Amino acid sequence: MMARFNDEKPVVEFILARIVPVPSRAKMISIIRDLHSAWLYKQLEAAVDGIIDFKLEEEGREAQNFMRIRTMRKVNFDSRWHRLRIADNFEVTLEK
Fold first, then answer.
1. Taking phi first (over 0 means left), then psi (-120 to 50 degrees means alpha), and beta for anything else, what does residue 53 get?
2. Rounded distance, CA 44 to CA 23, Å?
3. CA distance 78 to 82
4. Which among 13, 17, 54, 57 has a CA at the least distance from the CA of 33?
5. Global pTM?
6. Mind spelling out the 3-state secondary structure of 26-88?
7. In the chain, what's the furthest Cα-to-Cα distance?
8. Which uninterrupted H or E stretch holds 8?
9. DSSP conformation class of 89
10. Which of 2, 23, 84, 93 could disulfide-pair with 65, CB 3.0 to 4.6 Å?
11. Better pLDDT: 64 or 28
């Protein structure tokens, strides 16, 4: 993220003023946790319609991928963690 080279406040202002308001059917802002201050995350999370979390759990040589919808405005959703299955062709599906 650009905050690596700048102060966080100008970066957040740029994202909120230039990226979030642009109309589009699908828009994504990707943020990795624990790289920036809690203030930056709160500002960006308050500006978006939904937050989807991904996590990787490793046990020995085995890795398991999970996702959940943490928040989503104006819709009902299941906030539980769901395991992801990644096929040999890298197609990702929810494990049932």
1. beta
2. 17
3. 9
4. 54
5. 0.70
6. CCCCCCCCCCCCHHHHHHHHHHCCEEEEEEEEEECCEEEEEEEEEEECCCCCCCCCEEEEECC
7. 44
8. helix 8-14
9. T
10. 84
11. 64
Q: What are phi and psi of 10, to 5 degrees?
A: -65, -35
Q: What mean pLDDT comes out for the span 9-31?
A: 75
Mean predicted confidence (pLDDT) in 41-61? 90
Average pLDDT over residues 30-50: 84
C-alpha span between 77 and 4 (Å, rounded): 34
The answer to whether residue 44 scores a pLDDT higher than 90 is no
Supply 65's token pair: 């991928």
The overall average pLDDT reported for the chain is 85
Cα Rg of the chain, angstroms: 16
Q: Are 57 and 25 within 8 A, CB to CB? A: no
Q: Is the Cβ–Cβ distance between 44 and 30 less than 8 Å?
A: no
